[in-house]
């Protein structure tokens, strides 16, 4: 059980994402970085309340399919209420069990603002089992302080290689948010850095998007 399992967290997160663009913007950029095509079958790992799922549905279109996975029943209940589409399926379970949760292969897997919370080694192994031969995994990571993108990319290149993946592309981007957004983010009590926020200045979320592929 994590903080994500609380209905109160799901409710606060949902209200936050409706008021501030942080998660919608990073989801849209993630979906673009993943190079997803209309008609694709795509896995959304750590789908939360459905913000990323919605961006994926817009990209895959009516001929595509989104398989959305989250370990928190409360987050999933909110996602189901938020996103009504015939071509989305919801799965409650841990990302590391995704090969047992969903049936068949997917053209791509994405994960927005969640990947570092996963049990990395088994999750990468499970995702490799469900990707088609051409399939890729794309995930995002956010920082309050401008990261050393080259050093972080090199760390991920090594970590991914050690787990049977090649890093295909690393993209960096910035997203400006209001001071109010950071204060409300801190009330989510999910981010220690945000909880320490005291000033009234707009702030920047630095994001890295990593696209990788299981080695052939
Ligand atoms: C910051 S939210 C991101 C939600 C969504 N992708 C978005 O951008 O709005 C992180 C989500 O990851 C989920 N999560 C954390 N650990 C997980 C795990 N091991 N397996 C599946 N989901 C997990 C949480 O329940 C939460 O819904």
From TrEMBL:
A GO BP annotation: methylation
An example molecular function term from Gene Ontology annotations: methyltransferase activity
Pfam families, A to Z: Methyltransf_25
Keyword ATP-binding set for record: no
InterPro entries per record: Methyltransf_25 (IPR041698), SAM-dependent_MTases_sf (IPR029063)
Protein's recorded name: Ubiquinone/menaquinone biosynthesis C-methylase UbiE
Highest taxon of the lineage: Bacteria
Matches recorded under PANTHER family: TRANS-ACONITATE 2-METHYLTRANSFERASE, TRANS-ACONITATE 2-METHYLTRANSFERASE-RELATED
Keywords: Methyltransferase, Transferase, Ubiquinone
Domain Methyltransferase per the UniProt entry, residue ranges: 42-135
């Amino acid at each position: 059980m994590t903080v994500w399992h609380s209905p109160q967290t799901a409710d606060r997160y949902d209200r936050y994402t409706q008021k501030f663009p942080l998660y919608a913007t990073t989801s849209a950029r993630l979906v673009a970085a993943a190079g997803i095509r209309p008609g694709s079958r795509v896995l959304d790992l750590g789908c939360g309340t459905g913000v990323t799922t919605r961006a994926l549905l817009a990209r895959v279109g009516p001929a595509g399919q989104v398989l959305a996975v989250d370990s928190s029943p409360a987050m999933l209940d909110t996602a189901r209420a938020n996103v009504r589409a015939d071509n989305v399926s919801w799965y409650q379970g841990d990302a590391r069990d995704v090969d047992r949760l969903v049936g068949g292969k997917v053209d791509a897997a994405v994960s927005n603002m969640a990947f570092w919370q996963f049990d990395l080694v088994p999750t990468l192994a499970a995702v490799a089992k469900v990707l088609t031969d051409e399939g890729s995994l794309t995930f995002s990571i956010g920082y309050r302080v401008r990261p050393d993108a080259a050093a972080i990319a090199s760390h991920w290149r090594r970590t991914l290689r050690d787990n049977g993946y090649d890093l295909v592309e690393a993209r960096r981007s910035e997203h400006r948010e209001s001071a109010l957004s950071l204060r409300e983010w801190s009330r989510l009590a999910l981010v220690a850095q945000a909880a320490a926020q005291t000033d009234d200045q707009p702030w920047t979320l630095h994001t890295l998007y990593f696209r990788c592929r299981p080695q052939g």
